[in-house]
Amino acid sequence: MTAPKRNTWQREAVREGLSRMEGFVSAQQLFAELRERGSTIGLATVYRNLAQLALSGEADQLQSPEGENLFRSCSTSGHHHHLICRECGSTRELSAQVVEKWASSVAAEYGFTEIEHVVDLFGRCEQCREQ
Prior knowledge:
Layout: H1 9-20, H2 27-36, H3 43-56, E1 59-63, E2 69-73, E3 81-85, E4 91-94, H4 97-109, E5 120-123, H5 126-130
Helix pairs in contact: 1-2, 1-3, 2-3
């Protein structure tokens, strides 16, 4: 069993910075925002703390269609999925029970247990379509 992670000023800065950002952001975007506000935090520290926040469930993490890891402050506890506008980044959290049933069914068919999955849907929101 690993020891719990200390809550350092860097982790708190990343946590607070992420909570101020709208939608999903990259580590680079968050780093730029933190530096603009006068933080001395390093980019590697931002990456490391974002990964730890995602592991602890305090941040959502997904991969953009371009393959970049994106993060946002998590507003829903427990497993969920996202519907994300690829233009403005607005996000809706989804429970998607049909996906859960499908994942369980496929896993059982092939004899797998302890299944984990990520389903994120990308499209254009109504506001961006109207522009």
